[in-house]
Amino acid sequence: MKIGVHGKEFDKQSVPLIERIFELLGDHEVVISSRFVGHLKHPSFKKFRWERYEPGDDLSALNMMLSIGGDGTLLETVSHTGSYNIPILGINTGRLGFLATISRGDTEQALIQVLKGSYKLDKRSLLRLESSNQIFGNLNFALNDFTIVKKDTSSMITIHTFIDGEFLNSYWADGIIVATPTGSTGYSLSCGGPLIFPRSQNFVITPVSPHNLAVRPIVLADSSEISFRIEGRSRKFLVSLDSRVATVDNTVELKVRKADFTVSLIQLKDQHYFKTLRQKLNWGLDVRN
């Protein structure tokens, strides 16, 4: 089996964990991202052999991808795998971990199960950005969210928003978020957006610090096309797709729609989205329960 690995910089305490991961992968062909290779400088890694890949390389031959880090690392991993639909296992060495759900303590047993093929796939939808100047090139997709936020001024901006060509609202705010169900537990949640079950086939539009308190998040079918026109005292604004950020001006045309491919997240057979919510949000820990 050919397995890809991407990860973030780690501390000395994580060396034994990552060493054990490579030991478990010993019978397989391993391909590691160039960025993660740069962090594998500890002497204990010299005994392992791997190939290196660069973001943008053809990874279609991979059978599985490991993401070692937090949710941000997994989002970077998705930008590497793109539309190849490679199953991704998220090993959480970070903090919260809605996407990278395998904890340090569970990593060995989880990886043993996965290498035996004892897992299920959780298909997640993505959104795609269409812009008049091809802002992000071929990486114009996001698993979590697309955002527009102010940049060079403390003043709010106005984001005129249209759904399938019909005017929705002019958001007078610090910005706006368009999140997938997966992204509903991210930036959107921190701005008051709802939790959305992954298979709900929805987008949610959540304003960031709106001036009008009557403005609330709205849930839309993911078959919708969402377009924007931006105004403000500054001509420059920030837009983002997951972890990728770019500066644009108010002449750029921006449209968001559902991507034509999905991401496959590996889940162990005793895992479920509801269980993850209970664990990560500490539901049910009130002493009255």
Kindly list the characteristics that best describe this protein:
alpha+beta; Tumour Suppressor Smad4; 6-stranded antiparallel sheet; 2 domains; 289 residues; Rossmann fold; 6 helices
Description:
The chain has helices spanning 15-24, 34-37, 71-81, 107-115, 187-190, 273-280; strands at 2-7, 29-33, 51-53, 64-69, 88-92, 120-131, 141-142, 145-150, 157-163, 166-173, 175-179, 202-208, 218-221, 226-231, 236-241, 244-249, 254-267. Strands 7-6-17-14-9-10 form a 6-stranded antiparallel sheet, covered by helices on one side. Strands 13-12-11-8-15-16 form a 6-stranded antiparallel sheet, with no helix packed on it. By secondary structure, it is an alpha+beta fold. The protein has 6 helices and 17 strands. The protein folds into 2 domains: 2-119 and 268-280, Probable inorganic polyphosphate/atp-NAD kinase, domain 1 (Rossmann fold, 3-Layer(aba) Sandwich); 127-259, Probable inorganic polyphosphate/atp-NAD kinase, domain 2 (Tumour Suppressor Smad4, Sandwich). The mean pLDDT is 93. Helix 1 packs parallel to helix 4 (107-115). The radius of gyration is 20 Å and the shape is globular. Strand 2, helix 2 and strand 3 (51-53) form a beta-alpha-beta unit. The chain is 16% helix and 37% strand.
What's the architecture of the largest domain in CATH terms? Answer: Sandwich
The fraction of residues in strands falls at: 35-45%
CATH fold-level name of the largest domain:
Tumour Suppressor Smad4
Number of DSSP E strands? 17
> Any idea what the shape is?
globular
Strand order of the largest sheet: 7-6-17-14-9-10
| H/E element order | EHEHEEHEHEEEEEEHEEEEEEH
User: Low-confidence parts, pLDDT < 50 over ≥5 residues?
Assistant: none
The helix tally amounts to 6
User: Please, what is the average pLDDT?
Assistant: 93
Radius of gyration: 20 Å
| CATH H-level superfamily of the largest domain | Probable inorganic polyphosphate/atp-NAD kinase, domain 2
For the largest beta-sheet, the strand count, sense and barrel status come to: 6 strands, antiparallel
CATH class group of the largest domain:
Mainly Beta
What structural class is derived from the secondary structure elements?
Answer: alpha+beta
Our count of domains comes out at 2
Termini separation comes to 46 Å
Helix content: 10-25%
